[in-house]
Amino acid sequence: MPQSSISLTLESDPAEADLKAIRDGLHRFNAEKTSDDDHQTLTLFLRDENGALLGGLLGDTYWGWLYVAILWLDERVRRQGYWRPPKPKPCAAAASTRTWIR
Questions:
Q1: Residue 27 belongs to some domain of the structure
Q2: How far is the C-alpha of 74 from the C-alpha of 27, rounded, in Å?
Q3: DSSP per-residue codes, the chain
Q4: 49: in domain
Q5: How would residue 55 be classed by pLDDT, with cut points 50, 70 and 90?
Q6: Looking at the 3D structure of the chain, how many domains does it have?
Q7: Distance between CA atoms of 24 and 61, rounded to whole angstroms?
Q8: What is the pTM assigned to this prediction?
Q9: Residue 87 covered by a domain
């Protein structure tokens, strides 16, 4: 495909179909190049006794690793120990700055 027919766009409100196509494309690529990734979408919610949302974690797991895309806590529950990062085990990955946690 000639480069003149390709454009890069920044979109503040992308279509869900486009987001799905990118996720599916990455999943297909990973499936072709690696063993089964055992992918799971992960959504955790912190709620009060009335069901009001106080925080949440949006992410995924692949190959036994956790990817945190978004982590949010309401100001009222911050610094109370609800989501403390796990203490990393000594390994080469612990020195990484990536947001993957194993």
A1: no
A2: 32
A3: --GGG------SS--HHHHHHHHHHHHHHHHHHSS----EEEEEEEE-TT--EEEEEEEEEETTEEEEEEEEE-GGGTTSSTTPPPPPPSSGGGG--SSEE-
A4: yes
A5: very high
A6: 1
A7: 15
A8: 0.55
A9: yes
